[in-house]
Amino acid sequence: MTENRSQQVLHPFDTPRDVPDRTPTTDLDELAAHTIRLLTVDAVEEAGSGHPGLPLGAALPAWVLWSRHLRHDPADPGWPDRDRFVLSAGHGSMLLYALLHLTGYDLGLDDLRRFRTTGSRTPGHPEYGITPGVETTTGPLGQGIATAVGMALAERMLAERCNSAEHPVVDHRTWVLAGDGCLMEGVSHEAASLAGRLGLDRLTVVFDDNDVTIDGPATHSCTDDVEARFRAYGWHTVRVEDGTDAAALDRAYTAARAETGRPTLVSVRTTIGLGAPGVEGTPKAHGSPVGPAAVRAMRAAAGMPDTPFAVPAELSRSLAGLRERWTAARREWTELHGRWRAARPAAAAVFPLRATPVLDDLRGLRRLAGAADRPGAPSAVATRRASAAALRAVADACPGLVGGSADLASSTGTVLPGGDVGPGSFAARTVAFGIREHGMAAALNGIALHGGLRPFGSTFLVFADYLRPALRLSAMMGLPVTYLFTHDSVHVGEDGPTHQPVEQLESLRLIPGLTVLRPADSAETALAWEIAATSTDRPTAVVLSRQDLPELGSGDLDRIREHGFRVVGTDPARPDVVLAASGSEVGLACKAAELLRARGTAARVLSVPWRERFDRALDAGQVPRPAVPVVWIEAGVPTGWRALARPGDTVIGIESFGHSGPGAEVAAHLGLTVRAVAAAALRSIGRTPQG
């Protein structure tokens, strides 16, 4: 073929083609890579901190990807059919910021100068919602690759739902740049295994293989054969031995785009801190400024003027041509999308490609909430079973609802009609995530970030610890992910303390921006699903019982939505004491109230499924504080309830691990009995318990 690399550098997303076996890197490639490196060291020097090593070594691999293969438009960062690029190795954030600036996103040189400063749009690690073009928050290693699996899965699921031969409106790829640390973290193993099982062939992970970690060579602690590992997962693998060989990189990315049926790992041998005298190829390049002398030497070696934050005019002119082509592709898609909307208005309505679908038909859930009031209704039901019914109601009203469990679908009640998602069946709605809680939660984040679908996932509450890092990112990014946690207390019983959550519920409430709901019956469970399925800017954890709980009726549910609590049972006009609880302990409180009433003491019972909202309502004066003592009850560590309690109140909780035995016996052994609650109530008002 005729060689014209100055033209080949300007092909952002053409069809796969032949590439020469070895062509010297062009002047423009070299100029772009030098500019990325120098912008990086300038920003790190200005900030006095940062991680220059990865951007210096991966500058050319990233540039070749962005300039020749990545399908995006800086003029519209939210274009639904753009390729997603995830910097899983988020510590190398200046690589991403330099690329965003150079390619024309709304990120100026002043933003680069403010790198790592308070309130800047260039934080130390990429943060979703702060910087245009940043697809997800990364930094905790491995989270990016696992989140990208969710993005790639969402693309396949939406393509199956939306596309036709005439209107392929969902047709993009997900690219990841990951480092040694990302691939050592366990979540990457979970996510890569899942991606291989699902055959996510629109996913490519570029492995920045520089064999350096903070403590020394990566091989000092990890001698995995990474490519063999990924092949065992069912991935296609490609090796690039020289990360400064633009033609080899181009060839590898082209091969990834041509692959069908398998995700691709492109391993690229790079040199950390490339070009920085004194630190190149060493751990010193990882997380500290290279120093003014090294920066000056790098400028001289690149033939660049000794001016910080300089972008050569030649590079800017070339990038202007790229931007025109990206914008033209996006406009072409916009016209296609318009034709699709006209041809398939129903699909366009239920799959909003720029956003997460929101449940707007609440009739099914409202019917479920009132069902317990009807004659012949069961007197008790496990809230996990009530959740299964609510899930079906939401799924009927919201076609974009998708999700699954960590191999616990029958126990958590999360099987949707239509079979499991997988190769050839991406139109299904139930994802068999397998025993991969952490990978599941990160993938849910990716689905939510992608847009067009509303994700949920489920496991036992005790295993919330396995997925907590990804759930924390859900809250940090404000993603409307629904987490269902069942088997929520020592009532799990015979499986013993390893499976009886004690501290997990309280630990979830510590996460800022996470709505935590622990319903007491089927009506409150339906309401919990309503709150979760209408959320647009925060995740929701719904905490559910294994055992049957008494039905309390559907009255006063609006007060939960507004103030986090409701009054249940017989409400005395002038109570002597208040019993306040969540979940399974509300029924316990109701029985204690009956016992107290028989002994001449009037008790009001509060169900508090949404403690944080209740707490805020008290602080804001929206709800008057009880004028009588309160007994606060929950089958978990009582730390947070003690913060609500005032002098004279009593808190009943669990401050040890559980035991193996029938659930009711274990709860009684730990002090959760009707008599214990009634006795505490009487003592709080100065009366002597009887018997």
Defining traits:
elongated, 26 helices, six-stranded parallel sheet, disordered N terminus, alpha/beta, single chain, 691 residues
Can you give a write-up of this model?
The strands form five sheets. A six-stranded parallel β-sheet has the order 10-9-11-12-14-13, with helices on both faces. A five-stranded parallel β-sheet has the order 1-2-3-7-6, with helices on both faces. Strands 16-18-17-19-20 form a five-stranded mixed β-sheet. The chain is an alpha/beta fold and 691 residues long. Helix 2 crosses helix 4 (93-103) and helix 14 packs antiparallel against helix 20. It contains 26 helices and 20 strands. Helix 22 links the parallel strand 17 (577-581) and strand 18.
Quick overview:
The protein is an alpha/beta fold and 691 residues long. Helix 20 links the parallel strand 13 (515-517) and strand 14.
Query: Using DSSP, what is the number of strands?
Result: 20
User: What's the total helix number?
Assistant: 26
The overall pLDDT, averaged over residues, is: 94
What would you report as the Rg, rounded to the nearest angstrom?
28 Å
Structural class: alpha/beta
Low-confidence stretches: 1-24
Shape type: elongated
Q: Which strands sit side by side, in order, in the main sheet?
A: 10-9-11-12-14-13
**Cα end-to-end separation:** 96 Å
Give the percentage of residues in beta strands.
Answer: 5-15%
Specify the helix fraction band. 40-55%
Q: What about the largest sheet?
A: 6 strands, parallel
Question: What does the secondary structure layout of this molecule look like, with pairings?
Answer:
Elements lengths: L4 H4 L18 H21 L5 H16 L15 E4 L5 H11 L5 H5 L29 H20 L11 E6 H5 L1 H13 L4 E7 L2 E2 L2 E2 L8 H8 L2 E5 L5 H13 L5 E6 L22 H11 L10 H31 L1 H6 L12 H9 L8 E3 H15 L3 E5 L3 H4 L17 E3 L4 H14 L3 E7 L3 H14 L4 E5 L17 H6 L5 E3 L4 H12 L6 E4 L4 E3 L6 H7 L2 E3 L8 E5 L2 H15 L4 E5 L3 H9 L10 E4 L5 H6 L5 E3 L10 H7 L4 H11 L7
Parallel strand pairs: 1-2, 2-3, 3-7, 6-7, 9-10, 9-11, 11-12, 12-14, 13-14, 17-18, 17-19, 19-20
Antiparallel strand pairs: 4-5, 8-15, 16-18
